[in-house]
What we know:
The complex is a heterodimer of chains A (212) and B (222). Chain A is an alpha/beta fold and 212 residues long.
Amino acid sequence: xxxxxxxxxxxxxxxxxxxxxxxxxxxxxxxxxxxxxxxxxxxxxxxxxxxxxxxxxxxxxxxxxxxxxxxxxxxxxxxxxxxxxxxxxxxxxxxxxxxxxxxxxxxxxxxxxxxxxxxxxxxxxxxxxxxxxxxxxxxxxxxxxxxxxxxxxxxxxxxxxxxxxxxxxxxxxxxxxxxxxxxxxxxxxxxxxxxxxxxxxxxxxxxxxxxx
Amino acid sequence: xxxxxxxxxxxxxxxxxxxxxxxxxxxxxxxxxxxxxxxxxxxxxxxxxxxxxxxxxxxxxxxxxxxxxxxxxxxxxxxxxxxxxxxxxxxxxxxxxxxxxxxxxxxxxxxxxxxxxxxxxxxxxxxxxxxxxxxxxxxxxxxxxxxxxxxxxxxxxxxxxxxxxxxxxxxxxxxxxxxxxxxxxxxxxxxxxxxxxxxxxxxxxxxxxxxxxxxxxxxxxx
Lengths: 212, 222
């Protein structure tokens, strides 16, 4: 499905990584590991098509993503460091807009169920501004429950700021999604139990030509 | 595609409504700048009538520019813009929706209040009507051209001043045609050619600016 060959990324005159290659099949769970500043976020952004790599290519179902553009983005869900929530909108309103942009319009009932599954039933109508950091993260992640029909999830530090319950719910969500044929690429610094199910690993610290 | 546009416009208008103070600031800025001129140049009716159209237009230009920095900055800061770049809908469509919402929230109030400001320059009634019409036809091109500047200066330090330097010179044709339309009416001539040219400028901006904005937004994420 996703084929990455010889990907390189430089910031200024510093090479973050070079020669990153892997193949991810349906149902694969790929963990991108590396120290802070090793380029995990940069790699995930390149995989989504935010920015152009300095070398190498990302291909989706055989076609380069630079050419596929919207056809690729319709199939990918990217959750970055930023929650992409508007402070003045409620969790429900945010969820509706996010799903609409992703080309997967949702119904009021489905949105409510997705938020309730993340323990936000009581605050679905409050402006996101008044939620805690962890609750904001949860309301951003609620989008995943409604994106099971997108074949690829790219998650940057999905477990950060979450409590134990939310982490285990998210892990269940990811495992169910993979079992259904979806593929996930994620980064994390936490010892998640999901590590046991990881099928592939890309370690940015252990690349042959890595370094400053 | 239309449903995405509708949902983005509705979202941006809801946000503008929940942050009404921003809209009000722009409007007050417009009123104050336009009101300072009669105080500065004296109460000579002939003189006021002569400078009126130009002053109201310059004030509208500045007020419209003031609101531009808000167009993408918040979406850039909270990561929503990233999701728009990765949306299933072409970015230029989303850009058009955002500019439409921005025009309704930031420029439509200016259009509606401008005749009132024209009144204090002693402009005749038909000139006031043409002033509002010219602003209604001309401000869309201000928003569209301004959006290119806002996208180019996104995430830069001191972007606000740079935005003004980039965008204000490009506003010149709209300013010239807009005030000429009002002056022509006040002099008893037809304003139609100027209004048609303003509409043409806005249409040209609508057909070109969204692509320039999308390209600039993608560059700012490189």
